[in-house]
Amino acid sequence: MSDNLAKVLIETPEVGVARVTLNNPKMNALSAEVLTALFDATQDSRVSTAAAVIISGGPRLFAAGADVTEFGGQREARQVTDNFHRTADAIAALQGFAIASISGYALGGGCEIALACDYRIASTKAVFGQPEVLLGIIPGGGGTQRLPRVIGRSRAIEMMVTGRQVASEEALRIGLADEVIDPDQLDERSLELARMVASGATVAQRLIKRAVDDGIDRPLADGLAHERDLFVEVFASEDSRIGVTSFLQNGPGKATFTGR
Fold it and tell me: What are the tens digits of pLDDT across the range 223-257?
């Protein structure tokens, strides 16, 4: 089934999988209206409860960045950056595994939305960049913070201070893309990965994501303590009993989980 939330499409192609598609032709510019619709999509129960969420754009591009016509002075800038951060943070906070399916250009705010996802699958035609400096401004949707965490400080600063664009091959090499695939296989590969995640031990998956996200910026000792607590927590799940029993009886990889 599908639903149109103004500039965003929500589909549920399979049980446990949601697809959120930006739908603002021609360039998928991330206007305030689009960002609000994308934020609202993350709060929709079909998305917020999904084990895997695919976020995609059109066949030619993912998103070409902010709607520059909404720029103005500092007052407008505050609204733009607040809208971007609210939406990107909501994507990052999804309990399910968020997959960015990037068909073409992911520039500026489009790159920042992709960075908020857990995993990025790009077509061979994909191009990434934070070109805000070419407008005399800086990234305002999380790029200065998320990009260095993904590709490292030096590469991130170089990309942002030059504003240069990065094609798919380089993006894969530096870790900005996690997979690169032929354009005609992008949708199926994204769905294949989402399907695999949704059929797994989703309680454990959510706790893994929590452990990483909550612990990554803490001192190591605090992160390890958090992991110990979540390790104990997961043993309250039905999936843990199913998984351990199945392993003892049948070996690894044969359990059928319930998601509870």
Answer: 999 999 999 999 999 999 998 998 888 888 888 98
Instruction: Decide if 112 is catalytic.
Output: yes
Verdict on whether the full-model pTM lies above 0.90:
yes
Does the bond joining 26 to the residue before it have cis omega, within 30 degrees of 0? Answer: yes
Active site residue 132: yes
Q: Active site residue: 132, 179, 188, 227, which one?
A: 132
To 10 degrees, the CA torsion angle through 74, 75, 76, 81?
80
Tokens of 17: 């999988």
Which of the following is catalytic: 11, 70, 76, 112?
A: 112
> In the CATH scheme, what architecture does the domain 202-250 have?
Orthogonal Bundle (1.10)
**DSSP assignment, residue 218?**
S
Nearest to 7 by CA among 28, 19, 23, 29: 23
Residue 107: its H or E element: strand 105-107
3-state secondary structure of 138: coil
- Domain 2-198 listed as CATH 3.90.226.10: yes
Lookup result for tokens 């260095």: 148
Here the tokens at position 1 are 């089934």
